[in-house]
Amino acid sequence: MQADLSPFDALVLMSFGGPEQEEDVLPFLQNVTAGRGIPDERLKEVGEHYYQFGGRSPINEQNRSLLEALSRELETRGITTPLLWGNRNWKPFLADAVRSEHQRSGARKFLAIDTSAYSSYSSCRQYREDFAAAQTQLLTEGIHVDFEKIRQYYNHPGFAQAQLSCVREALEQYRAATGSLDPDDYRVLYVTHSIPSTMQENSERHTNGYRAQHEELIDWLSTELEPAYGRVESELVYCSRSGSPHTPWLEPDINDRMKELSEKGVGGVVVVPIGFVSDHMEVKYDLDTEAAQTAKDLQMDFVRAATVGIHPEFVAGLIDLAVERAEQVRQAAEEIKKPVVTGTSLSSGSGACSRNCCEGSRLVPTQPNWPAPSR
Ligand SMILES: CC1=C(CCC(=O)O)c2cc3nc(cc4[nH]c(cc5[nH]c(cc1n2)c(C)c5CCC(=O)O)c(CCC(=O)O)c4C)C(CCC(=O)O)=C3C
Ligand SMILES: [Fe+2]
Known about the structure:
The chain is of the alpha/beta class. It has 2 domains: 10-153 and 312-330, Rossmann fold; 157-304, Rossmann fold (3-Layer(aba) Sandwich). It is built from 11 helices and 8 strands. The two termini are 27 Å apart.
């Protein structure tokens, strides 16, 4: 593979964003929830999670480390394409980052590396809507930019292998802490962000869907673990449900499931946040604080696996994915063989999921792909 990112002028690490100090928390939450119908009580509760950490989300530090690691990887490969950082909900905002890079270097074509691995409206399509919104905003200033993104990478070898070493380490940590790894005594709980059931259904129309992608990766991980660990009892559970209690979201919640397991006599859990690429607030609060407390109350052993963070295989994988996307765009061909560890669920068409994937009831322009590029 050619170590070249042409036709792209710049890479942009695209993330959710999070507050840096107490004063940021409310305006951040207003940005996140604008028009999304989240009850006030839930917002207060989530605000408290941030205040408990001094108003500072861990996500920004994580992204700064990832930026550094990605820069080093680019340097190692002799790729000189500039790398910038833009967010959906907090500074540095995507449009601002892109504007300054355009003013600095004339860059017009941006390739985004996003910080979420699976297909769903929240974790994929909404980022593409953000690209279209930034494009529209900058167009009013006479700046024409466009965006592409890397594909969803839940089954890319870089992410999968990094995830596997996180699980192995956690199992060893559990063994060291409890003196055993008897499959009847503990359960591996793979955790991801819950989403509304309608969002799950929308994700299933053009890919195998959010939940099935997690299950595919879990099956692969279990197979990889078997030679060293034999049977590993594991299941997929969810955290961070929001929205109205009357709206169905994916279940079971991790805390509810731990209670059930405890009643069945399971003595401990190894919690693996496969839905999060780094230690977000969901990991720090919902898992390390809340689920850890549930474990204490139930007198269960509790080990939380690391997130992939800046694991070298994950970082190298992200650059592989950027190189792959650039090559697809150069050749105007989607059919370059994609390295995957499992499954073939991502259709060709955009490097993202597909043109129509994860559409909801509102049709909002996306980049890439809808409406079709005018040039
Ligand atoms: C699938 C998914 C990911 C993973 C993919 C990805 O990474 O993109 C993710 C990531 C994140 N979600 C985050 C924060 C929040 N998410 C909220 C609300 C929501 N998330 C949803 C889904 C997801 N969210 C959904 C369906 C909602 C309901 C409202 C809506 O339909 O949009 C709310 C509102 C309050 C609440 O209800 O919790 C907050 C504050 C942060 C930052 C954390 C930090 O500061 O470290 C991150 C990385
Ligand atoms: Fe979220």
